[in-house]
Input
Amino acid sequence: MPGTAADAAVETVQREMTAFARRARASAGRMHPELSLVSYTLLGHLEERDGCRATDLAAHYALDKSTVSRQVSALERAGLIERRPDPEDQRVQVLHLTPAGRRILAQVTESRRAAFRERLADWPDEDLVRFAAYLERYNAWRGGPRGEDPDRGTPATTYR
Output
């Protein structure tokens, strides 16, 4: 029995979001060979927050602490982040971008923006504005059971 138009649309959204995620992961390596999409995301969060603890990164992105620990170690070895004592509590280590980390993040961010601009160059302004609003609306939703993010099966968090 055929589904509704909404069912077909949901299937299309799921398929296209999966393709988008695959393309984003693949393009991250082309933007900077040593910077995975996860690493890029973590660096962006550290810049946005002007530093934070590794446990805060894990909680924010609903990642396992060991996953974040491996990513943080790799970013430290690459000289992109450093640990500094928290001025409020010397026992706590806060992760911060190094000058090299800021430079690479800026380069990759600009490359990603250029790639988006190129891909969306033929879109009318009103389509771009609508698309941006739909993405914000999609990513802002937190209505799953017990506040879970249905894409992760984990508690919903804010990704801004």
Summary: The helical segments are 5-31, 37-49, 54-61, 65-77, 99-119, 125-140. The beta strands are 81-85, 93-97, 148-149, 154-155.
